[in-house]
């Protein structure tokens, strides 16, 4: 299992622009714990990270060029940014979604939170004692995409 082969796809394909390799990084930590028989996931300093993932458009919004209806069960999707932290020690996590700032307590270990997003820029940072050690910027969330895409970007 690994990154998708996009060599035969057009540049406008969502496979070219929505990287999922961070899911592999997250999964590898759980696999290592399982294979070593740990009942708790232990994070070592080299694995420490905070990830976030989200769709690039509202669940109930068709693309401007779409001729088909929304996918079946689209009404059950939530317009959220999901933040997953793998921390060796407590940290302050800040998610900025479309200009709205959300402070998330970064508890030691593995944690996940869902935050309702706002259209616009998406960024995340983590700090300890004022020192930023993680900083990520993702693509905008827009209601004006050409085609519906229920896929996520993972950073």
Q: What can you see in these coordinates?
A:
With 155 residues, the protein is mainly beta. It has one domain (18-66, 76-154): Immunoglobulin-like, CATH 2.60.40. Helices cover 12% and strands 39% of the residues. It has two helices and eight strands. It has helices at 14-17, 21-35; strands at residues 49-55, 80-87, 91-97, 100-106, 109-116, 120-128, 131-141, 152-154. Strands 5-2-1-8 form a four-stranded antiparallel sheet, with helices on one face. Strands 4-3-6-7 form a four-stranded antiparallel sheet, with no helix packed on it. A hairpin with a 2-residue loop joins strand 6 (120-128) and strand 7 (131-141). The longest helix has 15 residues, at 21-35. It is globular and about 50 Å long. The mean pLDDT is 89.
What's the CATH topology label?
A: Immunoglobulin-like
Known CATH architecture: Sandwich
Distance between the termini: 18 Å
Q: What percent of residues are in strands?
A: 35-45%
Number of strands: 8
User: What is the count of distinct domains?
Assistant: 1
Short description:
It contains two helices and eight strands; from the N terminus they run ααββββββββ.
Record the SSE blueprint.
Elements: H1 14-17, H2 21-35, E1 49-55, E2 80-87, E3 91-97, E4 100-106, E5 109-116, E6 120-128, E7 131-141, E8 152-154
Antiparallel strand pairs: 1-2, 1-8, 2-5, 3-4, 3-6, 6-7
